[in-house]
Automatic annotation (TrEMBL), chain A:
Subcellular location(s) per record: Endoplasmic reticulum membrane
GO cellular component: EMC complex
Sequence ranges assigned to domain EMC2 TPR-like in this UniProt record: 90-199
Pfam families: TPR_EMC2
Keywords: Endoplasmic reticulum, Membrane, Repeat, TPR repeat
Membrane topology, record value: Peripheral membrane protein
SUPFAM superfamilies in the record: TPR-like
Cell membrane keyword on record: no
Protein name: ER membrane protein complex subunit 2
Quaternary structure and partners: Component of the ER membrane protein complex (EMC).
Organism in which the protein naturally occurs: Fundulus heteroclitus (Killifish)
TPR repeat locations: 155-188
Automatic annotation (TrEMBL), chain B:
Natural source organism: Fundulus heteroclitus (Killifish)
Domain of life: Eukaryota
Recorded GO CC terms: EMC complex
Name of the protein in its database record: ER membrane protein complex subunit 9
Any Pfam family hit: UPF0172
Lineage: Eukaryota, Metazoa, Chordata, Craniata, Vertebrata
Cited InterPro entries: EMC8/9
Length: 297, 184
């Protein structure tokens, strides 16, 4: 079978740079990382210099994700040889045990790391991941809350906690976590959009209005966010349709909904240009927007 | 209540879960009902792979699927356009009937680790015609990487040029399951 470099006519430097980009972007495209990384390690390891160690780590984690224990063990053994006392490598050993569902052994491993270094956040977060993997959401939420009391700036932890609360349908607390994230990442349209979705799900006029505002904010930050565009249309339509709102609020929300509908139609027309199969979906979107339209007084 | 799962529905459910192995996924089962009382699931629409408990996108997806079915049904009357799917008449009414008969919402969680007779708690029995052939088709598409062709509604919202109705994949599954290929 031809190697990746032969199939795609790429050199080892491009493969190395690709792995670096995926590392920096924190992409979880584990299958691709395994394909590229395995070839790089087996054929070009002598050319990589000190980069080899971080590549071993990246490929090892990707290999665990793809159930490639053989490759993961190879990478881990190289890292252990080079860094025998490293907590970072010990964490990887724990992750391998997790992948093998040996959770008790993994926990003992992480406890040993925490005994030597109580401030090791990576080991603490792995213990919380084990609880999540075991379906123990309540315990995971409790541990994560305790963790965030000490490490209040850990955005990954806030995001994880918001996901846990959403899965438990505790939307109020999920909203609180997303508010923390929005404060530290005011230009992130995805947090605004997710916050708006949580508010919409909570329901009630006040939450719908907040949802509409945050969908609008998400669009201000990224005008191609289709979820935010649809969300703006739906929340504005619901507000306008409510008998409890004033005439001015109704009129304003009709305007917002109309604007959103026009943007949605325009986006679908642009997307469907030259593609006759898309005629069906454009028509369906138009009819769907009409069916969700508020009744005019 | 018994359920007869078509090859198309099973394969798409399977591929949807394979495409997102680290996420919970959900979708819509489309069916007709036969005289014997069994529910015949003829197709499925993969919907979401993220934030399943949140309302807006679920509401949007269900509405858009319903309208797409209406449009397809409207196209059926009078002429047939190439490229559009054929749907049985009254599919929207059948969908509503399915919703009213099934105690859980139409979005049925399926644990693929245990896909078999015990994965749908509200159904006493799941039947699959020619299970071996169906399973072979699913494995073949997975091994060839064709599960990447599947687009769920979440994927469509990320890129609206992608077709959540999965015409290309449907055609591929139909081709593989055609009697001419020695299959079903």
């Amino acid at each position: 079978m031809a190697s990746l470099s032969e199939m795609y006519d790429v050199g080892w430097e491009e493969m190395r740079d690709k792995l670096r980009k995926w590392r920096e972007d924190n992409c979880r495209n584990s299958e691709q990382i395994v394909d590229v990384g395995e070839e790089l390690i087996s054929e070009h390891s002598s050319k990589l210099g000190d980069d080899i160690w971080i590549i071993y780590e990246q490929v090892m984690i990707a290999a665990l994700d793809c159930s490639r224990d053989d490759l993961a063990l190879t990478c881990l053994q190289e890292l252990r040889k080079q860094f025998p006392d490293s907590h970072r490598v010990k964490r990887l050993t724990g992750m391998r045990l997790e992948a093998l569902e040996r959770y008790d052994d993994a926990n003992k491993h992480y406890d040993a790391i925490l005994q030597e270094d109580p401030t090791n956040t990576a080991a603490r977060k792995r213990k919380i991941s084990i609880l999540r993997a075991q379906g123990k959401s309540t315990e995971a939420i409790r541990e994560l809350n305790e963790y965030l009391e000490q490490f209040v700036g850990d955005q990954e932890a806030w995001h994880e906690l918001s996901e846990l609360y959403i899965n438990e349908h505790d939307y109020g607390k999920a909203a609180f976590c997303l508010e923390e994230l929005m404060m530290t990442n005011p230009h992130n349209h995805l947090y605004c959009e997710q916050y708006a979705e949580v508010k919409y799900t909570q329901g009630g006029m006040e939450n719908l209005e907040l949802a509409r505002k945050y969908f609008a904010q998400a669009l201000r930050l990224n005008n191609r966010n289709m979820r935010a565009l649809f969300g703006l249309y739906m929340s504005a339509s619901h507000i306008a349709a409510s008998p409890k709102v004033s005439a001015k609020v109704k009129k304003d929300n009709i305007k917002y909904a109309a604007w959103a509908a026009a943007q949605i139609n325009r986006a679908y027309k642009m997307a469907g240009r030259g593609n006759k199969d898309n005629k069906c979906s454009i028509k369906a979107v138009e009819e769907m927007l009409e069916s969700m339209q508020i009744a005019m007084p | 209540m018994s359920c007869l799962l078509s090859c198309l529905a099973y394969v798409k459910m399977y591929l949807h879960s394979c495409l997102f192995p680290r996420c919970s996924v959900n979708g819509l089962l489309l069916s007709s009902s036969s005289a014997g009382g069994a529910v015949c699931v003829t197709d499925c629409v993969p919907l979401l792979h993220s934030h399943l408990p949140l309302a807006p996108i679920t509401q949007l997806a269900l509405t858009q699927v319903k309208e797409d079915l209406r449009v397809q049904e409207g196209d059926q009357k009078g002429r047939r356009e190439p490229g559009c799917r054929r749907w049985p008449n009254r599919l929207v009414e059948l969908l509503q009937a399915l919703v009213s008969r099934v105690p859980l919402p139409v979005l049925s969680p399926v644990d693929f680790c245990r896909l078999g007779t015990d994965c749908c708690p509200f159904l006493s029995r799941i039947m699959l015609r020619q299970w071996e052939e169906t399973r072979d088709i699913a494995s073949q598409l997975l091994e060839s990487g064709d599960h990447g062709l599947l687009v769920d509604f979440d994927g469509h919202l990320d890129d609206i040029t992608k077709d959540w109705t999965n015409q290309t994949l449907n055609a591929k599954i139909a081709e593989l399951s055609s009697p001419a290929n020695g299959s079903i």
